[in-house]
Amino acid sequence: MPPARKKQRTYDPAKIRAAVTAQFGHVAAAVGELGPERLALPSGLGEWSVAELCAHVAWIADSLAAGLSRPPAAVPELTVSEWPFATASLAGKISEAARETLTGAPLPELYERAAARLAEQLAANPGSRVLELWIGDMTLADFLVTRTVELVVHTDDLNRATGMDVPIDRQALAACTRLLADALALKAPGGSVEVRIPPFAVVQCIEGPRHTRGTPPNVVETDPLTWLRLATGRTGWAEALDAARVRASGERADLSALLPLMS
């Protein structure tokens, strides 16, 4: 279980809604270009094919729309920065849902239907409410931020599996990066290590002497995509260090025992 709650970062709801819609649109456009050969490729995610990965992304949008169509829950049970720690228990259900989604219709039709349903439900729910979810009830604003993680991470999965260059919305990437950085700070509270993910996030974590002025003695710095891959288990800590995608200085600047945050 994650540590006790602390004050969490705030996000602009209008920007997050726009980011979620934009990123789903980017994936939808790319899926329309995929032929049978690339859809049959391994996704790099367990036994999923690229087709199953694409079906999962369609399900992400469709399940959000379905959640919005249900009556609201009473109170939130989970905050946005706690969400990564609750995802592991749902792996089996999510995999089953992806396969069921894929059998429902051809992928372009699935995406067209999911996009229309999502747009309709977001327009019908412009304000704040609590969603009843498998993972634990969350505010709509918080849950939409978690959708940026799902969409950005799986866009990166799709690009790496197929060699495509599907765009990643900047606002979606920023929200995704910040959420996972805050999750690290929640998992390992403290101030002895500064983790920098320019240009989007800086957090302090890990118990020990707290940095107050000047250059921190323990610093980890990486780029947003490498951070997302580390945080979700797509890349290992040693691999990222060896490839110079992570710079770590100081005796405490080793995050290997804390990663991945989710998988």
By DSSP, the count of extended strands is 6
Task: Give the rounded overall mean pLDDT.
Answer: 92
Label the overall shape.
globular
- CATH 2nd-level architecture of the largest domain: Up-down Bundle
Q: How would you sum up this structure, described in words?
A:
The chain is an alpha+beta fold. It has two domains: 13-173, dinb family like domain (Four Helix Bundle (Hemerythrin (Met), subunit A)); 188-249, Nonspecific Lipid-transfer Protein, Chain A, CATH 3.30.1050.40. The protein is built from nine helices and six strands. A four-stranded mixed sheet has the order 4-3-5-6. The protein has a two-stranded antiparallel ribbon with strand order 1-2. Strand 1 and strand 2 form a beta hairpin. The protein is globular, with a radius of gyration of 19 Å. Mean pLDDT is 92; it is low at 1-5.
Short description:
This protein is an alpha+beta fold.
What descriptors fit this protein?
9 helices, two-stranded antiparallel sheet, 6 strands, globular, alpha+beta, Nonspecific Lipid-transfer Protein, Chain A, 263 residues, four-stranded mixed beta sheet, Four Helix Bundle (Hemerythrin (Met), subunit A)
